[in-house]
């Protein structure tokens, strides 16, 4: 299978993560350092003041972090599974309309893989900014991920 025919990280996440499909998340940019994911304005996911529900924004930010993690470490899936360890979110301003999450890997991927190579269970942060269409930041999220090595075959 050629690289051109391989599905993108966004396509893989849409196919394999039901909440991504439920919220109709869009993945305009995904690299091993950064992912941009968009939550379209949908009244079914509004809160009591007419903006996206906090749970939808949490899922948006977590999905953006998952996309950058998959892009950075997808080649490690045969020996480790990426897992979110902990997350903190701060809602700073009212989000209205379409919201975009921009996630950035907080540690060089090569450093994380080197730690895995040494037999460790590396942890690494992903920082996410949530913003309205006009660019106003409405929230920030920080997620610590790990690569948990698979148990040895017995």
Automatic annotation (TrEMBL):
Lineage top rank: taxon: Bacteria
Gene3D superfamilies assigned: Hotdog Thioesterase
CDD domains: PaaI_thioesterase
Record-given protein name: DUF4442 domain-containing protein
Pfam family, one: DUF4442
Organism: Streptomyces gossypii
InterPro entries associated with the record: DUF4442, HotDog_dom_sf
